[in-house]
Design goal:
Distance between the termini of chain A: 44 Å
Number of domains of chain A: 1
Shape of chain A: flat
Strand content of chain B: under 5%
Helix content of chain B: over 70%
Distance between the termini of chain B: 15 Å
GO molecular function (chain A): sodium:proton antiporter activity
Strand content of chain A: under 5%
Keywords (chain A): Cell membrane, Membrane, Transmembrane, Transmembrane helix, Transport
Pfam family, one (chain A): MrpF_PhaF
Number of strands of chain A: 0
Number of helices of chain A: 3
Membrane topology (chain A): Multi-pass membrane protein
Largest sheet of chain A: none
Oligomer: heterodimer
GO cellular component, one term (chain A): plasma membrane
Radius of gyration of chain A: 16 Å
Order of helices and strands of chain B: HHHHH
Radius of gyration of chain B: 18 Å
Number of domains of chain B: 1
Number of helices of chain B: 5
Structural class of chain A: mainly alpha
Order of helices and strands of chain A: HHH
Largest interface: A-B, 19 and 33 residues
C-alpha cells in the first residue's frame, strides 16, 4: 500500500517537474516548484513509515515544509522585485 | 512585500514556529536528526524570511550587525573554550570525558556546549550573509 503511494507521489512529482521546466510563464514555474516541495514533504513522510523510523523522518518533513515556504517567498520576491532585500517594487525593468 | 496581508500574517505565524523548531533541532540533536549546523541554518532561515517580507532594514533593527559579529566570535569562543577547558582539566583537546564526574555525563555536556557554539556561529554568519548580499542595492 505504501509502495503504491510512493509510486503515485513520484508520478505527481514528475508531472510537476515537467511543468516547472516547460512552463511558459514564471507563475507556472513557481506553482510547479511549490507543488514539488509539497509533494516532497509527503514523500519524506511516506518513506518514514515505509522504513519504520517515522519519528525521525517526520521531523525532516516538518523542516522541509517550513523551508519550502521560505523558498517560495524568496523566488516570488526575486521575480517581482528583482532583488531579495528591497522593500519596494523597482521601476519595472526586472519584471517578466 | 509587507503590504500583502496573507504573506504578512503567515510570516508572523510561521517565524515563532521556525525558531522553536530550530531550538528543537539544536537541543534534541543527540537523539534525533539535527545538530548545531542545521539548527543554526534553521534559526537564520526565520530571520531571512523576516527580511524577505519586511525588508533588510527591519532585520537590522532586530539584530544589529555589531551584535551579529559578536555572536560569530562568541560561538567560536565557546567551541574553542570547551577544548581548552578539557586540556586544563587534564585531557586532550576536546576530550569530553574530563568534563563531568563520569565519562557519559562529560560526553553529554561536551557535545551540548560544542553544538551550541556551532549553532550560534552558523546562525550569525548566515544572517550576515543574507544582509550582505540582499541589501546591496538599498
Amino acid at each position: 500500500m505504501l509502495t503504491l503511494v510512493t509510486i503515485a507521489l513520484l508520478a505527481a512529482m514528475g508531472m510537476a517537474l515537467i511543468r516547472a521546466i516547460k512552463g511558459p510563464t514564471v507563475y507556472d514555474r513557481i506553482l510547479a516548484s511549490n507543488t514539488f516541495s509539497t509533494k516532497t514533504v509527503l514523500m519524506i513522510s511516506v518513506l518514514g513509515f515505509l522504513t519504520g523510523e517515522s519519528e525521525v523522518y517526520l521531523d525532516i518533513a516538518l523542516m522541509y515544509a517550513l523551508v519550502g515556504f521560505i523558498v517560495t517567498v524568496a523566488v516570488l520576491k526575486v521575480s517581482e522585485f528583482g532583488d531579495l532585500g528591497q522593500s519596494r517594487p523597482d521601476s519595472g525593468e526586472n519584471r517578466q | 512585500m509587507k503590504d500583502i496581508p496573507v504573506l504578512r500574517v503567515v510570516t508572523k505565524i510561521t517565524i515563532p514556529i521556525i525558531l522553536l523548531f530550530a531550538m528543537y533541532v539544536q537541543f534534541h540533536g543527540d537523539y534525533g536528526p539535527g545538530g548545531g549546523f542545521q539548527a543554526g541554518v534553521i534559526f537564520a532561515a526565520a530571520f531571512i524570511l523576516y527580511g524577505l517580507v519586511f525588508g533588510t532594514s527591519a532585520v537590522r533593527q532586530v539584530v544589529s550587525p555589531g551584535i551579529l559579529r559578536l555572536l560569530t566570535a562568541l560561538g567560536l569562543l565557546l567551541f574553542a573554550g570547551v577544548g581548552i577547558l578539557t586540556m586544563l582539566l587534564g585531557g586532550d583537546y576536546l576530550d569530553y570525558n574530563t568534563l563531568g564526574q563520569d565519562p557519559l555525563h562529560g560526553q553529554h555536556l561536551g557535545i551540548f556546549l560544542v553544538e551550541l557554539g556551532v549553532g550560534i556561529t552558523v546562525a550569525a554568519v548566515m544572517i550576515i550573509f543574507f544582509l550582505a548580499f540582499a541589501g546591496r542595492r538599498d
